[in-house]
Amino acid sequence: MLTDAREIMQNQAATGSKARPSTKAHNASVDLIAVVVAMTEHGPSVLAVGAGDALPSGPFEHGHRSLQSGLRGWVEHQTGHQLGYIEQLYTFADRDRIGEEGQQRVISISYLALTRAEHSVGLRRRLWRSWYDFFPWEDHRTGVPTIISDVVEPRLLAWASEPGSESLRRERRQRASFAFGLDGSSWNEELALQRYELLYEAGLIEEATRGSERRAPPPPVPGAKMIADHRRILATAIARLRSKIKYRPVVFELMPPVFTLLQLQRTVEALSGRLVHKPNFRRLIEQQELVEETGETTADTVGRPAKLFRFRHAVLDERVAAGTK
Amino acid sequence: MLTDAREIMQNQAATGSKARPSTKAHNASVDLIAVVVAMTEHGPSVLAVGAGDALPSGPFEHGHRSLQSGLRGWVEHQTGHQLGYIEQLYTFADRDRIGEEGQQRVISISYLALTRAEHSVGLRRRLWRSWYDFFPWEDHRTGVPTIISDVVEPRLLAWASEPGSESLRRERRQRASFAFGLDGSSWNEELALQRYELLYEAGLIEEATRGSERRAPPPPVPGAKMIADHRRILATAIARLRSKIKYRPVVFELMPPVFTLLQLQRTVEALSGRLVHKPNFRRLIEQQELVEETGETTADTVGRPAKLFRFRHAVLDERVAAGTK
DNA sequence: TCCAATTATTCTCTAAGTGAGTATAATGTG
DNA sequence: CACATTATACTCACTTAGAGAATAATTGGA
Q1: Are residues A101 and A153 in the same domain?
Q2: pLDDT in tens, A36-51
Q3: Residues 6+ away with beta carbon under 8 Å from A38
Q4: Can you tell me the distance from the alpha carbon of A301 to that of B60, in angstroms, rounded to the nearest whole number?
């Protein structure tokens, strides 16, 4: 069907400067990359492979019914994890990765998947790592991390003071303040990607200085590195998830079937990287009718026993907006 | 760089059932598809090619610096339009479109682009069509369109009454009510994609009954058809744009450099398909400081002259959230 | 047994935001 | 100069969101 459109386009393009003489199909290899998130004892964690510095990924194959099922198959077969929720993140073409034939480019399609760590089956090699290992400046649950005032802020200010036009310097200072909540700005947890990109641009991310050996790069800001652009993809996933939990009930994909409201709150806090007001959180959850009581209570720990709840799957049909803002 | 990751994955996969023996690259051809939106005299319009039933699209080429610049190049050279704002929509692999060699699949990457119709240069063949030509049920500016109560609702209810389990029928009724604001539900303009998918699933969209000639399809609901899945891509774009204008100042990409507040309001209304309260709209725009006065006023029409405004481009740096909710 | 510590749960208060209506101002037209 | 028309300003009720205080039900030990 689409051939019609392409022919039309090429006929039109024939009058432009980018006209292509032939109808030869243009080839690329397609990679599927997954950011698989689960809650572990170490906090919000991501499934890593290799030396713990790579996201699961694999080529899109003919046997795959669709992109999404291809990804699902890869992750399930490799790690024994059933992915509950899958969402496409972004598609990009890496300019620097030309295949040997020169006629090949790599298209990477990245996904965010949510699961539970217990869904792990078998003993295959895998690694859950807290995403704050990769982004230590993103965890504000116990206040603004010291790394920001000790390392990030001075280095960004140094970068913003490099020789150049005054307007460039002011713009850099402004972007740094905005992204990291410096000066009067407030911290916005959804800016995870912008923060990573800013540090990358400032040369403070290890991945940014790989390959180009022109001059000695400045020592990078703390945070575990990843191969290729995987850390950027992870930052994209974090930003997307932090935004999404506010208007869609996706947190429950990370929860056990039955949980207390505090456990739910802790999960939301772990994802967003900041604490929430407990009574307000409860009010929000209950007035949205996201959960229903099981009738049971916990007895395991100290303090008053908490009621147990389960997710009301019916809300998925009932409403459009429902989340944990 | 990514080769590392892929090798790791394949080593792991070797223990799974989907192990692939070779490292042979998997090929696909990549199509870029653009939904180019502008305001014309006919309302919110989309750039169509061919018989007005196809979105501009073209293959991703080696000369393209990136996917986005590839798309930009295609559209600019074909239509003379400068695309201000480009945003990736979705990437999908069409199962039914296998290339002649059998070793080929088509990956389509769709984009939403915003421009102004006046940016048109030259006389190349092109066509602006109101997007309500394709989705007549989406325009609620003059009340609920009659097509909903006259055609959509009865046909959907008939579909929801087909033989099957009672739970299936109830679920269908519920989805129809939710998507189209029937019964007690209220209309939600952001559900454009869900509505199209529901009609498609119910066999009421012409594209849904193409190819399969098993039995006589029911007559489709009014609305211009498009080739392949282009109408679905357009629905995705509409939904995305209707959502986005609420929290990001993207409307201004569609506005002339200088405009009145009423013109801005009419544009927002045209996009969202519903009327807004004029005083509240003004209050919102002004308190967000999205615009600044030029000092001039209009003199062209009847009534009190309106102040002219221009977009404050500074807001793009200042804030994260800024829109026309 | 009873008090302290701990966690759960409910309420209140306030500020800010949103939806809807009303009033006033400035222009052109008959 | 009344009047239609569009622009602009103001008000009010209602809902939502942030923050703190108060009360309830447990466990662990003095």
Answers
A1: no
A2: 999 998 999 999 988 8
A3: A45, A47, A114, A115, A116, A117, A119, A128, A254
A4: 58
Q: Residue B188: beta bridge partners?
A: none
What is the token pair recorded at B124? 């190349």
Q: What proportion of chain B, given as a percentage, has pLDDT over 70? A: 84
A166 token code pair = 């005054």
Largest CA distance in chain A: 77
List protein-proximal bases of chain C (any atom < 7 A from a CB): 5-12, 18-22, 25-29
Name the residue range of residue B186's domain: 136-222
Closest CA to A126 of A68, A81, A60: A81
pLDDT of residue B315: 85
For β-strands B85-98 and B105-114, DSSP reports them as antiparallel
Confirm whether A76 is domain-assigned. yes
Residues with CB under 7 A from strand D: A 277, 279-280, 284, 297, 299, 302-305, 325; B 260-262, 278-279, 282-283, 297, 301-307
**How many angstroms separate the CA of B302 from the C1' of D1?**
18
B239 occurs within a structural domain: no
Give the integer Cα–Cα distance in Å for B314 and B264.
18
**A78, A105, A131 — which closes off a domain?**
A131
Q: What is the DSSP letter of A97?
A: E
B54 and B87 both lie in a single domain: yes
Residue A291 in any domain: the answer is yes
Same domain, A46 and A123: yes
Give the CATH number of the domain where residue A308 resides. 1.10.10.10
CATH number, residue B79: 3.90.79.10
Q: B109 and B80 share a domain?
A: yes
Look up tokens 């900041």; give the residue.
A274
Q: What confidence tens digit (pLDDT) does each residue in B5-38 have?
A: 333 333 333 333 333 333 344 678 899 999 999 9
- Give the end of a domain, one of B116, B131, B146: B131
Cβ contact, residue pair A2, B227, below 8 Å? yes
Domains contained in chain B, number = 3
CA pair distance A91, B91, nearest whole angstrom: 7
Contact B159, B179 (CB under 8 A): no
Two tokens at A93? 């073409």
Distance A177 CA to C29 C1' (A): 56
Cβ–Cβ under 8 Å, residues B235 and B107: no
> What is the identity of the amino acid at A1?
M
Residue B280 has pLDDT above 90, yes or no: yes
Confidence class for position B77, pLDDT limits 50, 70, 90: confident
Please tell me the distance from the alpha carbon of residue B238 to that of residue B89, in angstroms, as a whole number: 11
Chain A residue at shortest CA distance from B188: A320
Measure B277 CA to nearest chain A CA, in Å. 23
| CB B37 within 8 Å of CB B255 | no
**A-chain residue closest to B17, CA distance:** A77
Q: Residue B177 CA to C15 C1' — how many Å?
A: 37
* A34 shares its domain with A107: yes
| Residue A257: inside a domain | yes
Same domain, B105 and B40: yes
Buried-state track B268-294, b at ≥16 Cβ within 10 A, e below 16: bbbbbbbebeeeebeebbeebebbeee
| Chain B residue at shortest CA distance from A16 | B77
**What is the rounded CA–CA span in Å between residue A292 and residue A23?**
58
